[in-house]
Amino acid sequence: MTDTDLMPEIEATGARLVAAREMIARRIIGQDEVVEQTLIAILSGGHGLLVGAPGLAKTRLVETLGTVLGLLAHRVQFTPDLMPADILGAEVLETGADGTRAFRFIDGPIFCQLLMADEINRASPRTQSALLQAMQEKEVSVAGQRRFLPRPFHVLATQNPIEQEGTYPLPEAQLDRFLLQIDVGYPDRAAERRIILATTGVDEALAEPVFDAPSLMAAQRLIRRLPVGEAIVERILDLVRAARPESGDAHPAVRDAVSWGPGPRAAQALMLAIRARALIQGRLVPNLDDVAALARPVLIHRMALGFAARAEGLTLDSLIGQLVGDVMGVEAAA
Questions:
Q1: Which of 113, 106, 38, 115 is nearest to 76 (CA)?
Q2: Residue 204, class by beta-carbon neighbours within 10 Å (0-12 exposed, 13-18 middle, 19+ buried)?
Q3: CATH superfamily to which 1-80+113-124+151-225 belongs
Q4: pTM of the full predicted structure?
Q5: Engineered SS bond to 116: which of 12, 15, 62, 180, CB 3.0-4.6 Å?
Q6: Residue 167: Cβ within 10 Å count
Q7: 334, pLDDT greater than 80
Q8: Residue 166: left (phi > 0), alpha (psi -120 to 50), or beta?
């Protein structure tokens, strides 16, 4: 299929995305970049890890996305005593009217299309691991049986970076399942003024559906068909391979500072995410600016600094910025 053949579908999807962003902006004020990155994660068919202090509308964003994208959304509040069965579901023994007994499976909240895992790092590793199979394979195994999840299926997890007491760090294997780490910062003064005026009155803006599950899945398929130039592919490979300390292509700063780096899933994530960003911004072809803008959200949770680097005050933010500048010759997104 040629680029010309794709244009009608691209234009129709682009118009829907504009309407979706406008609908989300009714309820989420001053977080345009967060909204864009969250939509990128979903359009790419992946999951997002929202990291930010309490009260920054992370829960509100996920609720609004469920409505605007026309998805069945569930929310799970992760706590230290949460068990895997509380997420996946369980079999219960029921007695029929004729006295016969049989097991019946009761779906857990994971059987939805958009799952909000609120404060995911407060649950034990055993419970966190219950999400691994679901996030990667879109199915779960309960009582020896495979049970498929609704399509599409996305996880948007939230994490509080301030309070670490009573939390469990996410294992590297699970972090790698998140397409993007989306940092949610404080709004500026003008945005915060609009927030307090919009949310403390009698009437509050409501969101309405723009997509539904079939149209969203069609947009996800379209993303995978968008062309990516050979030069952009090579820059993605250069960037990801430069971030691996054990690679022969490793950046000199990475060899000394990083204990482990991103795997091939990071390159896959960048390939999908830059296409989604281009489409959201009304472009057919992604460019180097897309790679630079998404390098941090794709890489930061797939890398870890060594002890010596942390002791010297080095941060992954500065290191990724240096990588983007040296490898691509483009200034990294702030």
A1: 115
A2: exposed
A3: P-loop containing nucleotide triphosphate hydrolases (3.40.50.300)
A4: 0.88
A5: 62
A6: 16
A7: no
A8: left
